[in-house]
Amino acid sequence: MAKKRPQPARRKPRRKPRRDALHNRERILDAARQAFTRFGAGASLDDIAKQAGVGAGTLYRHFPTRDSLIEAVYRSEVEKLTAAGRSFAQTMPPIDALRAWMLMFVDHVGQKQIIAPALNSVAGGASKLYEGSRSMVQGAMDALVKRAIKSGDLSNEIDSQDLLRALIGVFYVGSSSDWQQSARRLVEILIAGSRTPK
């Protein structure tokens, strides 16, 4: 009589994080973003936990190291930016969605500039983080530009990468205090210059 093979143990399905755990995580990220903006990478993790209204143990359960918290703050901002692109596309006309997202991107770059010292403290530097986010940002821009081209709002010769490079270029040209205002004006110039000729 053939022996029965032992059945592999069934894995328990992974439970989704509870709603309050997700809420705590978001509060920690928001408090950490503010703290890293004001105080840099050395911001007190205990103060971040206190600001978020959670205990230090809760913070460390979500983010075991300072680096993991810094990385999560940056990734969270990139995810919000890409999600906004999808939301704008669903709720606004194509050219308005593109403009709103480009203005939001200017704010994102400004935020990145403010927390750059914290990002640079991450083991291995921030370049790994930037690399991972680049494709998400480019994907959001591509989708919005394609939609605006399809609607006839933009010339079909427009390349979304060119628009993104132009915006990022303002950040690198100079670190004057009014670079964000300049970048916002550039958004209008870029859109006007990219319109389909009438």
Description:
- 72% of the residues lie in helices and 0% in strands.
- With 198 residues, it is mostly helical.
- It has 2 domains: 20-64, Arc Repressor Mutant, subunit A, CATH 1.10.10; 73-194, Tetracycline Repressor, domain 2.
- The radius of gyration is 22 Å and the shape is elongated.
- The mean pLDDT is 83.
Distance between the amino and carboxyl termini: 85 Å
Briefly note the CATH topology name of the largest domain.
Tetracycline Repressor, domain 2
CATH superfamily of the largest domain: Tetracycline Repressor, domain 2
| DSSP strand content | under 5%
CATH class of the largest domain: Mainly Alpha
The whole-angstrom Rg is 22 Å
User: What characteristic shape results from the CA principal axes?
Assistant: elongated
CATH architecture annotation name of the largest domain: Orthogonal Bundle
Percent range of helical residues: over 70%
Count of β-strands = 0
Distinct helical segment count: 8
Low-confidence stretches: none
Number of domains: 2
Main β sheet profile: none
Mean pLDDT rating: 83
Helices and strands, in order, run as HHHHHHHH
What is the structural class?
mainly alpha
